[in-house]
Structures are given as structure tokens and as C-alpha cells.
């Protein structure tokens, strides 16, 4: 298992291979279906996004509110295939990595490879455990979406499996029944 900071992903990507386990630290942005639609609408309108895409990491999650004294509630991954219409445009603008669960469409895999990006899987069904790796949470866009608003999380040692590497090799091809 290797430890990486989100700022190191671009430089590390060529040396990583599908199936590797990674402990990820650093900032990530949450975005699910509704937030993706709004991000693309902003791009279509020529407007600025609420965060810079260059080198960013998107986590397909809709964290629940924190309990009193907590940083965040449950924050497990959602099914990534629902976001598959969006990565090609976001990757073209510098997105470095995505975190979710499940296999991706072929177009998304090809876009990941074309841009030297990465796709990680987090363990589904372990949202409360994942929350223990979140050191900070700040809502930064689309508050009307509630738990699906865009949030900036600060991760500390978040356990992931590299599912699609920068060359486009997919863990799902090697183990088609894998469902992280």
C-alpha cells in the first residue's frame, strides 16, 4: 500500500497500476449526479466552476450531515456509472482523478487514459468508516442540493483501490466480478 497526497497524483500516475491500494490524503470535491449536471451547465454557459479542475479529485459521494461535534456524517461512494456522461469534458479541463464504486463505461476509461488520469474505488457500504478519514468538510457550491451539494473534503489516509490507471488498464477487465 502506498500513501499519496492529491497534489502528487499527476506525477505519480504513470507509475501506478490498476489493483494497487492507496491511502489518499489531501483535498477532494464531492459531486453526484445533480452537481455534475450543474457543473456542465456552468461550462456550457462559459462560467467559472466553484473550484479549479486542474489537478482536482472528484469523489462521487453525497455526505450526510455531521453529528454534533463531528466533521461529517456517512460519506461512502455512490455508483460511478451514473456520472459516465461527464468525465470526458472534465478530464479535458484537467481533472486528475475520480473516486467512486463500480465499473466505468468504455468512453470514460478511454478518456482517463487519454488524459493520464486515475479512477479509484472506495469500499461501498462503509460510509461511516470512510468518514473517519475526513479531517474537514466545507460546502462550496449548490447548497440547495442538500447532501448532494459540492463539498471540499480534506482526506487523511483514505483507503482506495486503483481501478483504472493512467494507461487505461482496468481492474474490472482483469476481474470482471470485482464490485468495489
Structure commentary:
By secondary structure, this protein is an alpha/beta fold. 22% of the residues lie in helices and 27% in strands. It has 6 helices and 7 strands; from the N terminus they run βαβαβαβαβαββα. A 5-stranded mixed beta barrel has the order 2-3-4-5-7. α2 links the parallel β2 (21-30) and β3 (57-59). The longest helix is centred in the first third of the chain and has 12 residues, at 33-44. The protein is globular. The protein starts with a strand and ends in a 6-residue tail after the last helix. The model has no long low-confidence stretch (mean pLDDT 94).
Comma- or semicolon-separated keywords:
22% helix, alpha/beta, 180 residues
Q: Specify the helix fraction band.
A: 10-25%
Compute the separation of the termini in Å: 17 Å
User: How are the strands of the largest sheet arranged?
Assistant: 2-3-4-5-7
What would you report as the Rg, rounded to the nearest angstrom? Answer: 15 Å
Mean pLDDT: 94
Main sheet makeup? 5 strands, mixed, barrel
- Helix count equals 6
Molecular shape: globular
What structural class do helix, strand and pairing data support? Answer: alpha/beta
List unreliable stretches of 5+ residues.
none
- Describe the oligomeric state of these chains in a short phrase: single chain
Order of helices and strands: EHEHEHEHEHEEH
Number of strands: 7
User: Which percent range describes the beta-strand content?
Assistant: 25-35%
Amino acid at each position: 500500500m502506498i500513501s499519496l497526497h492529491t497534489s502528487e497524483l499527476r506525477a505519480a500516475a504513470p507509475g501506478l497500476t490498476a489493483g494497487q491500494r492507496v491511502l489518499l490524503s489531501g483535498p477532494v470535491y464531492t459531486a453526484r449526479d445533480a452537481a455534475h449536471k450543474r457543473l456542465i451547465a456552468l461550462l456550457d454557459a462559459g462560467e467559472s466552476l466553484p473550484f479549479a479542475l486542474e489537478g482536482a479529485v472528484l469523489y462521487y459521494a453525497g455526505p450526510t450531515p455531521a453529528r454534533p461535534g463531528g466533521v461529517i456524517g456517512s460519506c461512502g461512494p455512490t455508483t460511478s456509472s451514473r456520472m459516465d456522461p461527464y468525465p470526458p469534458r472534465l478530464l479535458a479541463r484537467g481533472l486528475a482523478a475520480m473516486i467512486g464504486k463500480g465499473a466505468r463505461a468504455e468512453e470514460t476509461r478511454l478518456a482517463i487514459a487519454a488524459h493520464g488520469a486515475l479512477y479509484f474505488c472506495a469500499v461501498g457500504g462503509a460510509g461511516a468508516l470512510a468518514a473517519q478519514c475526513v479531517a474537514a468538510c466545507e460546502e462550496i457550491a449548490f447548497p440547495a442540493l442538500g447532501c448532494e451539494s459540492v463539498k471540499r473534503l480534506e482526506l487523511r489516509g483514505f483507503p482506495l483501490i486503483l481501478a483504472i490507471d493512467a494507461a487505461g488498464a482496468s481492474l474490472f477487465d482483469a476481474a470482471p466480478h470485482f464490485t468495489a
